[in-house]
Amino acid sequence: GVFLYNHLQQKVRNAEALAQKYKQQQEALSAQLQVVYEHRSRLERSLQKERGEHKKTKEDFLVYKLEAQEALNKEKQDSMNRYGALSSQHKILKNQHDDVKKQLLDLQLQHNSLRLEHRKSLESQSQKLAQLQQDRDSEVTN
């Protein structure tokens, strides 16, 4: 009976030692699991924060993009208006230039005809003067 009692006590001690060992392992695993859960919780908070920042950055970018597009459209419209005004002014100046060219040609033609008329008049006056001198010389000789 003593032998059986010792043997059973030895088995109980072995079982208690094994239970203690498993309990320590369970506590170590529980501590590791707690660390993993805390790390996961920090990562989730960090992820949520990053998502919030990303969303804000995306919204800011969309606002910037919209403002840039509006500014570009406004600048394009202003450029088109300036182009239209310059084009109209160019047409007006071109028409004025053509008118001035036409006036210049008319004045050149008028100048040439007046020069020709003046030359004819000068030749006519020279001939009359020569004729008068000849008549005077002939009267003097007579």
UniProtKB/TrEMBL annotation:
Instruction: Output a single Gene Ontology CC term carried by this record.
Output: Golgi membrane
> Which keywords describe this protein according to UniProt?
Coiled coil
Q: Which residues form a coiled coil?
A: 5-60
What InterPro entries does this protein's entry cite?
GOLIM4
Instruction: Map out region (Disordered) in residue numbers.
Output: 120-142
Mark out the compositionally biased spans (Polar residues).
123-133
**Keyword Glycosyltransferase appears in the UniProt entry:** no
What is the protein named? GOLI4 protein
What is the organism field in this record? Thryothorus ludovicianus
Which gene underlies this protein? Golim4_1
